[in-house]
Amino acid sequence: MISTQAYPGTQAVTRAVTLLKAFSDAHPAWRLSDLARAAHLHKAPTHRLLAALERAWMVARDASGELYRLGPEAIALGARAARASDLREVSRQELEQLAAATGETATLEVLTGSDVLILDEVPGSSLIGPTPEIGTQWPAHAASTGKAIFAALPETEVRAHLGARLAPRTDHTVTSYTALARELARTRQRGYAVAVNEIDHGFTAVGAALLDHDGRPVAAISLGGPTIRFPARRIASLGRKVRDAAARISHTLGYQSVE
Q1: Which whole-number Å values give the CA distances from 162 to 4, 14, 40, in the listed order?
Q2: Under DSSP, is residue 218 helix (H, G, I), strand (E, B) or coil?
Q3: Which residue in 21, 77, 94, 149 has a CA-CA distance of 20 to 30 Å to 48?
Q4: The pTM is what?
Q5: pLDDT value at position 132?
Q6: 223 and 105 Cβ atoms separated by less than 8 Å
Q7: How far apart are CA 46 and CA 10, in angstroms?
Q8: pLDDT at 67 > cutoff 60
Q9: Cβ(137)–Cβ(116) under 8 Å?
Q10: Looking at residue 74, what is its pLDDT?
């Protein structure tokens, strides 16, 4: 029989973890009283826990001694966790299954400035089609993966990535923020993005974003091939497959859907 009694010190560990989890992009620094309130703890035990975490370099104070931030050990631990959950490693099986099931090329892509970059790819079985290579970059606003990532970001961040002008790759490329906003709204509604003849004439792709534990897009996956093999009905079918695969990868990355 497994004992349900907590080990001595478990409560302190739980509270310390609660304090560490309070640090985020929205709240990178805390005053003692505010952190205690956010963690639903009294000020005195919060101070003791922070002192222990500070000695372990898990938190650090600024020059004034008033604000606490994550320390170098917490940052290093996060980096090790990120490497342990390498995007290529957690996505590879889904890419292989997508390529095998559809015959189209599956890719994993990340946002780099105004472009998306192919981080990994699994070629499809079809003899005729594009041969994207790892390291290839596309304009993000013209790519299904870029649109998928942008659909999960605030508009201000999208504009910061793209700048003032959306350059055309073909005469089908979205070149205005009004048109892009409509595309991103459709992407959010159906759960996947579509790019038909936007990167190159004769090339179509569907993509979906990968979300981390905070719901932030960290990458996207796609299926792409010759437009002739992507009629409207098949685009919808492939889009759902990519969306579902992306949801499974996101779950592995720690994302919890609110639905």
Answers
A1: 53, 42, 41
A2: strand
A3: 77
A4: 0.67
A5: 64
A6: yes
A7: 15
A8: yes
A9: yes
A10: 85
